[in-house]
Amino acid sequence: LKIFCGNANRDLAGEICEYLSVPLGESKVLRFQDGEISIAINESVRGADIFVVQPTCAPTNDNIMELLIMIDALKRASARRITAVMPYYGYARQERKARARDPITAKLMANVITTAGADRVVTMDLHAPAIQGFFDIPVDHLPGVPILAEYFREKELADLVVVSPDLGGVTRARSLAERIGASIAIIDKRRPEPNVSEIMHVIGELEGKNAIMIDDIIDTAGTIAQGARALRERGAKEVYACCTHAVLSGRAIERLADSVINEVVVTNTIPLSEDKRIDKLKVLSVAP
Ligand code: R5P
């Protein structure tokens, strides 16, 4: 078994290697002056079972190309099996034609990853679980809920309600609620345009409860910040937010800092730069 990584999340790859007591494979991402990427694999991989840890987070296009080129290099170097470990799967939110002539980029990604030579994919909390079926190779789809649940169990909060910030996240919210012995509530959210969300109703009992909102992704943090306000207006005491993928683009960090949320718990599927590390943000590792 050998583990390699590109530049997307070297810290996570290092933590996985430490967990498994396996050294990180010797490789380098090279960049030519015109921006093209090349990969140097600096040890033999002949006959080996290879795992490439490379979430396709921002810079998404560079990280995708690093992954594809690394898989190609490993294949041509006679690796026996190559598993693409993509804790965050970029372009997952383009998984269907929402309007006429839309691309389905999540499927395009599945095609190129398979064509490059991946034999298997390991990923986490796909925005749309049906993306598993875009691949004709095995996909291990792991949930972040067990890691988040363990953290909240240890906090021993009373009177808990787990809140899904939209109708699509109810199954995830129920899974967390069952693990920590909480009731559930649902926010009825509408998206009039990309990156803008509007809250219509909140279904469930919030009065006097400690609320935990759970989402797959926090991107601009609009959904979660607005949701927290709505929960407070309906009588919630403390409001926590958690997610697997901390995309945190645009004004997300400012929004979270200014929000009524007491703590935001995320995982490290996407690396968090120093300027995004605010006090109320807690990062849990998915390495195990
Ligand atoms: C949407 O359906 C997703 O589950 C998240 O709710 C969404 O990506 C969060 O986006 P933002 O943080 O920009 O509101």
Automatic annotation (TrEMBL):
<comment type="function">
    <text>Involved in the biosynthesis of the central metabolite phospho-alpha-D-ribosyl-1-pyrophosphate (PRPP) via the transfer of pyrophosphoryl group from ATP to 1-hydroxyl of ribose-5-phosphate (Rib-5-P).</text>
</comment>
<keyword id="KW-0545">Nucleotide biosynthesis</keyword>
<dbReference type="Pfam" id="PF13793">
    <property type="entry name" value="Pribosyltran_N"/>
</dbReference>
<dbReference type="InterPro" id="IPR029099">
    <property type="entry name" value="Pribosyltran_N"/>
</dbReference>
<comment type="similarity">
    <text>Belongs to the ribose-phosphate pyrophosphokinase family. Class I subfamily.</text>
</comment>
<feature type="binding site">
    <location>
        <begin position="219"/>
        <end position="223"/>
    </location>
    <ligand>
        <name>D-ribose 5-phosphate</name>
    </ligand>
</feature>
<dbReference type="InterPro" id="IPR005946">
    <property type="entry name" value="Rib-P_diPkinase"/>
</dbReference>
<dbReference type="Pfam" id="PF14572">
    <property type="entry name" value="Pribosyl_synth"/>
</dbReference>
<dbReference type="GO" id="GO:0002189">
    <property type="term" value="C:ribose phosphate diphosphokinase complex"/>
</dbReference>
<dbReference type="InterPro" id="IPR000836">
    <property type="entry name" value="PRTase_dom"/>
</dbReference>
<keyword id="KW-0418">Kinase</keyword>
<dbReference type="InterPro" id="IPR029057">
    <property type="entry name" value="PRTase-like"/>
</dbReference>
<protein>
    <recommendedName>
        <fullName>Ribose-phosphate pyrophosphokinase</fullName>
        <ecNumber>2.7.6.1</ecNumber>
    </recommendedName>
</protein>
<feature type="binding site">
    <location>
        <position position="127"/>
    </location>
    <ligand>
        <name>Mg(2+)</name>
    </ligand>
</feature>
<keyword id="KW-0479">Metal-binding</keyword>
<dbReference type="GO" id="GO:0005737">
    <property type="term" value="C:cytoplasm"/>
</dbReference>
<keyword id="KW-0808">Transferase</keyword>
<dbReference type="GO" id="GO:0000287">
    <property type="term" value="F:magnesium ion binding"/>
</dbReference>
<keyword id="KW-0460">Magnesium</keyword>
<feature type="binding site">
    <location>
        <position position="215"/>
    </location>
    <ligand>
        <name>D-ribose 5-phosphate</name>
    </ligand>
</feature>
<feature type="active site">
    <location>
        <position position="189"/>
    </location>
</feature>
<keyword id="KW-0963">Cytoplasm</keyword>
<dbReference type="GO" id="GO:0006164">
    <property type="term" value="P:purine nucleotide biosynthetic process"/>
</dbReference>
<dbReference type="GO" id="GO:0004749">
    <property type="term" value="F:ribose phosphate diphosphokinase activity"/>
</dbReference>
<keyword id="KW-0547">Nucleotide-binding</keyword>
<dbReference type="InterPro" id="IPR037515">
    <property type="entry name" value="Rib-P_diPkinase_bac"/>
</dbReference>
<dbReference type="GO" id="GO:0016301">
    <property type="term" value="F:kinase activity"/>
</dbReference>
<keyword id="KW-0067">ATP-binding</keyword>
<comment type="pathway">
    <text>Metabolic intermediate biosynthesis; 5-phospho-alpha-D-ribose 1-diphosphate biosynthesis; 5-phospho-alpha-D-ribose 1-diphosphate from D-ribose 5-phosphate (route I): step 1/1.</text>
</comment>
<feature type="domain" description="Ribose-phosphate pyrophosphokinase N-terminal">
    <location>
        <begin position="1"/>
        <end position="117"/>
    </location>
</feature>
<comment type="subunit">
    <text>Homohexamer.</text>
</comment>
<feature type="binding site">
    <location>
        <begin position="93"/>
        <end position="94"/>
    </location>
    <ligand>
        <name>ATP</name>
    </ligand>
</feature>
<feature type="binding site">
    <location>
        <position position="191"/>
    </location>
    <ligand>
        <name>D-ribose 5-phosphate</name>
    </ligand>
</feature>
<dbReference type="GO" id="GO:0005524">
    <property type="term" value="F:ATP binding"/>
</dbReference>
<dbReference type="GO" id="GO:0006015">
    <property type="term" value="P:5-phosphoribose 1-diphosphate biosynthetic process"/>
</dbReference>
<feature type="binding site">
    <location>
        <position position="166"/>
    </location>
    <ligand>
        <name>Mg(2+)</name>
    </ligand>
</feature>
<feature type="binding site">
    <location>
        <begin position="34"/>
        <end position="36"/>
    </location>
    <ligand>
        <name>ATP</name>
    </ligand>
</feature>
